[in-house]
Amino acid sequence: MEIVEGIGIGVAVVLAALLILFIRRALFTRSGGIIRLSVRVSTILDGRGWSPGFGRFVGDELRWYRMFSFALRPKRVLSRKGLVVERRRLPEGQERLSMPADWVILRCTSNHAPVEIAMARSTVTGFLSWLEAAPPGAASPRLASQDWPAA
């Protein structure tokens, strides 16, 4: 009888965890301004270290949440004021196995620290528009180079 109770408690815990993940995701996605976004959290091995998640635009910030996390706070926050896109490229090598084929990788500098983010090609235009949007009279040197290769 103890084994059955233990299995029942284990199943209840797993179901509760899945429910919490579902509710967390539903809360974030219902408010709009959400994009699928992967962030490279480790550069130890070439082509690896990508973590899937979603980004949420809130004012002058892009808040990134890990896909499989219980945290209600973003794992990383990119401020529009300190974010500069250095270049973009297509996934190479191992990266092609870890993300969809139509994704583009953007190498950015966020407050002088490098960060790589990946998103769908169709999302890049909206992201760059958000990045370039600035209050009237503010300078907008957000894009380091306009002669990017066609992605």
TrEMBL record:
Q: What keywords are assigned to this protein?
A: Membrane, Transmembrane, Transmembrane helix
Q: Give the matching InterPro entries.
A: DUF2550
Which domain of life does the protein's organism represent?
Bacteria
Membrane-crossing segments per the record:
6-27
Work out whether the entry's keyword set contains Membrane.
yes
Q: Which Pfam families has this protein been placed in?
A: DUF2550
UniProt protein name: DUF2550 family protein
UniProt organism field: Micromonospora solifontis
